[in-house]
Amino acid sequence: MFSLPAGYLADRLGCRRLIYLAGLLLLLVATALFAFGRSILVLIVARVLQGMSAAIVWSVGFAMVLESVGKEKFGEALGAVYSFSTIAELTAPILGGILYDAVGISAVFAIAMGITSVDLIMRLLVIEHDVAKDNMDSNESYLSGEESESASHATENEPLLPRDVEIKYKVCGDTKSWLRAMPVLYCFRNASFLMSMMTSFTQAMIISMFDATIPTEADTLLRFSSLQVGLLFIALVAPCTIFGWFCGRLVDKHGTKYISTIGYGFLAPCLALMGLPSLDVIDRNIKAIVYCIVLALDGVGLAIINLPGFVEASDVMKKYEAANPALFGDHGCYAQLYGFNSFFFFSGLTAGPLVSGFLKDHLGYGGMGIRFGIASAAVAILSYMFMGEDL
């Protein structure tokens, strides 16, 4: 829930640095409470602060990425971000376990606080996008001659959007004060924007379904230990890491409509195959191999669907901003946008284990996979219908 006010404050204040640093400081405090807390209340407070920090850092961080690289390379940049994030998610539990066994819990939290401190220092060294842009503009104006000046006048007179597109995204009539305070709400009138939020919700549900069911299924079917279950996740996570950057380039090159459609369409049969290792026709000696292959295919699908919804929401937002510059302000509303995206994503992370647990209890692991596959196929169809408008 905190992702929404975090995005609002970042856009209203116009200073990404201050909000981002606040998020990192909250993470430092939360980590310290985890390290030294001895009561349930302290641990709950630490967990709440940790969630608040994640909401701030992700919402503001993605806004900073878009401002830095632009829309043309946004997918590629996000692909790299998600790849490094996946590597961290994969290696952190392993390193944490090794440190815990070797030197105890204090060393684990000490290293976590050290990494956060390094992140905080690096953020202090980053030049704000607006400051860098102002410096570049002043240098260009100083070096430009009459020819470039006349060319710039011609460029300034050209509309940012084609006339028919501008009319479609133009906000007309009187606007209420609360809508002026959060202009991103206007984007929810757009079918592509709504679809992008739906894909984020669905993607998060699928991810959390894996997190909730792989350990129990591996224990029931394969009698795996905790370490073996952790290694089993490599089959799912590795494709996301390897193909993340490449899929981001595909989104930039071919658009969100086709990549999202292909991704969810590919993922549908892969999810339906999740019950395959439990079938009696599969020899017990190769059940683990078959399960790893199915998880790897699902990982490829997750790599493909990782970005289209996020990039689509940013694209729609940019069109509304170009058509209504006065309403969206000088700094835009991208932190608000990613705050809403985080809200839908974390809602999916919450719903995924509940839905998957219910389906697994009543229909079995294979039946659960089939239902999630059907949902993925439905999202593929809706993505083709509503995402990536042909304007």
Automatic annotation (TrEMBL):
Chief localization: membrane
Name by which UniProt lists this protein: Membrane transporter
Pfam families membership: MFS_1
Cellular localization per UniProt: Membrane
One GO molecular-function entry: transmembrane transporter activity
InterPro entries membership: MFS, MFS_dom, MFS_trans_sf, MFS_Vesicular_Transporter
Topology in the lipid bilayer: Multi-pass membrane protein
Entry keyword Transport: yes
Entry keywords, A to Z: Glycoprotein, Membrane, Transmembrane, Transmembrane helix, Transport
PROSITE patterns on file: MFS (PS50850)
Record's keyword annotation contains Transmembrane: yes
GO cellular component, as recorded: membrane
Transmembrane spans: 18-36, 42-66, 78-99, 105-126, 186-207, 227-246, 258-276, 288-311, 337-359, 365-387
Organism whose genome encodes this protein: Gibberella intermedia (Bulb rot disease fungus)
Entry superkingdom: Eukaryota
PANTHER family the UniProt entry points to: GH10249P, MAJOR FACILITATOR SUPERFAMILY (MFS) PROFILE DOMAIN-CONTAINING PROTEIN
Domain Major facilitator superfamily (MFS) profile: 1-391
